[in-house]
Amino acid sequence: MAAVALGLTVLENAIPSPLPGVKPGLANIVTLIVLARYGWRMAAWVSLLRVVAGSLLFGNFLAPGFFLSLSGAICSLAVLALSLHLPARWFGPVTDSILAAFAHIAGQMTVVYLWLIPHSGIAYLIPIFATASLVFGTVNGLVAAGFMDNGEKTDTERQP
Fold it and tell me: What predicted TM-score, i.e. pTM, was given to this entire model?
């Protein structure tokens, strides 16, 4: 599954971005599927392996882009760990994806502010990134839900 996520990362990097830093996060579809089928630990492994392998593949290991990707992944995984305790009746792959997308951009914006651009002007980018997170989070969640069999029990059943 980490190899599939890495392949989607490579595909995503080949797609031109309308704005710097705005990417669809296709590999997160795999993370959501792994989360539902195998649990949070396995999803964390897939996500972190994808970040490290992707940075090695693209030659930016330990560069600022690596730390931005890592911070986004860690924040997303933290939110996904918390989201597992939300009631399944109202929360599922789409809401998980949206929450993870917002956490991802929040983690990245925090690193940008604390390390790269310590200026309050980056706050003007928040509406753009929040909109992108909402759109891509929704689309990725719908795609992930489409790949999941809703009738099959998973290891990570939510609380009712």
Answer: 0.85
